[in-house]
Design brief:
heterodimer; A: 599 residues; alpha+beta; eleven-stranded antiparallel sheet; four-stranded antiparallel sheet; 14 helices; 23% strand; globular; B: 159 residues; mainly alpha
Amino acid sequence: MRADGYAPIREYAAIGDGRTTALVASDGSIDWLCLPDVDSPSVFAAILDAERGGRFALAPEVPFEDERRYLPGTNVLETTFRTADGAVRVTDAMTLPLAGIAPVREVARRVEGLSGSVPLAWSVEPRFQYGTQAARLGRRNGLAVADAGATAVAVRAWAAGQTGGADLGDGSIVGRIDVRDGDRALLALSAAHQEPLVFGSRDEVEQRLDGTIAFWRKWTEKREYDGPWKDDVLRSALALKLLVYSPSGAIAAAPTTSLPETLGGERNWDYRFAWIRDSAFTLEALLDLGCPAEAHAFFWWLMHASQLTHPRLQVLYQLDGGNRAPEQELPLEGYRGSRPVRIGNGAVDQRQLDIYGDLFQAVWVYVERGNDIDREAGARLAATAGLVCDVWREPDRGLWEVRSGPVHFVQSKMMCWIALDRAARLAERGQLPREHAARWRREAEAVRDFVEEQGFSEAKGSYVRFAGSEELDASLLLGSLMGYCDGDDPRMAGTIDAIRQELGHGPYVHRYTGEDGLEGREGAFLCCSFWLVEALARAGRPDEAAELMESLLELANDVGLYAEEIDPLTGEFLGNFPQGLTHLGLVSAAVAYARAGGG
Amino acid sequence: MIWGALAGGFAGTLVLTTTLRAASELHLTRMDIPFLLGTVLTENRVRAKAIGYGLHFVFGVVFAVGYWAIFTAIDERGWWIGAIFGLGHGLFGATALVNVLLPLVHPRMATPLTAAGSTPLLEPPGFLMLNYGRSTPVVTLVSHVAYGAIVGGFIALAG
């Protein structure tokens, strides 16, 4: 049900091809698509501006009910529309280049009549450059095309054995199809960037669509996870695979920008970058799921990208490894009026000390699983460990990228300890040069002393958000997850209880108490809930972990996807979607629960 | 000297190709000559671009030899007359060569007579190759003038 032209975020599903991702609403409208890559400007952005953003709509012309699912083991979406007079099934996919001269990107939408007769209308409203560049509509040998600058799209419709069927409307390409029981129709949107368009034949598009379904099924069959909540874990694996930027192996935090953390608020960020913060989780999840190719690609992307700013790390990098992310605002209305709509991300310039721990934990996991790092990368990592020794005493903005002033975030210090401890252990194994290992150990002990003396509240029986405060922060659970302390350490047990009590609300967990330099309040952060599941499992409390996990799995949308946040009062999804960190948290929690003897 | 034409053809095509690529990166045109040429021979995108680059250089050198033959016939040479030839060459390319002749010989490109069938089709360039972007004619002419000037200059230098 749309409000002011906007579908609830919960009603979207994602399709993608390893380069970009489209969001399809349950009413059949593709409201988000960037071309040619996920971090390129949008062609469809109705999710950020219902009037000017552009979309690819496909729906019955009469009242309908919809039901949908992913085809099992795939990222191919199947939506069934039921009307008073019949039913049709729409299969949506971004195809892979498997047959013929494939277009640079292609969205295929197969329509099948299931019963009776259903009149379908479709319209493609391309709005290039986030809706700021006027499209030039025209025909090439009878085929409808639209272009602007370096990007062009062509639309083809094959219905009941006929080709063409696309009319040029006012800024849109439109058509309609009467679908009867047994009819098959096909719509294809092919895109070109910096080259001429490719117009595929119907046979080729059908072949690519079938080949894409087969590819995804085969990919899923190869995954090795066989523990509890297997279906949910595999759906998360498929969602994460959508976020993998194939050319580099980087994983986008989400394929969208500026879906709000607060409706109508200013907490709207561009997540189409790869965060160092997610690296340890990402690598471990990929290895746990049996995705060695993706894990190796991600690890070496990490080594490559961090080389640019060596020995310092940036909070985030472009998906191709670049280190620029200048933030700017777009003249779009924003999702349900949530302004500003931002591209780029100002957090790139922040100092966040926790990321050093994430980097070294990722390297540690990589080596622990039987891999080696080369001497050059080892030398660079040693220099980075030296930097951590120099800077850990300084305040930072913390994992949550607060826009208030820097303080001594305790979770950041814990991650500095992880960085130095892992560096020393890697040196012991001959993966890093050994000459500075003694210094790393000495500084690691100093970090631990700081955390234990100034980062723990005897009154609360919990670690605290920043040194000397009494505020709480769900990211402190990462102390257990990343190995700062044992899962059943008494101080961590107290922290788990305090977080449940002060930040929890049923299955929901808020990020922190206290200020962050931004107006408005946000929803509950879903990854924090999954971290809590994992912390409970590691603390030897499997029953509580399983109970919480079951509650969280019920919060996914109808196709098993999660956003970044959820409104505890309404259950509405908030923030960018689908969110990699949430799905990483789900996978990590399930694996930890299984390892702890659950399931 | 024909060696001047051969060297000029190579250098001129290098500059022409680089100019077109730069214009593409600047989002001025979607024209991609190597892609268009290579897909005459193969459906494989990567192979098509590699073959296309090779063919473009061969054509560049062949055209330069043609320039040299005409220069010899009219007993005139120099970068300026090369530039004029390049202008004519660019106009010919944008109107007849790519717009009319390439679709006729390209097995995967639509012509005005083509109905959408089972063969994969490339977007046709249209008059002045405007289908590939409004700036395409300007980019084409500028790059061909540069090509002609370089070829003319090399031929003059070689005596």
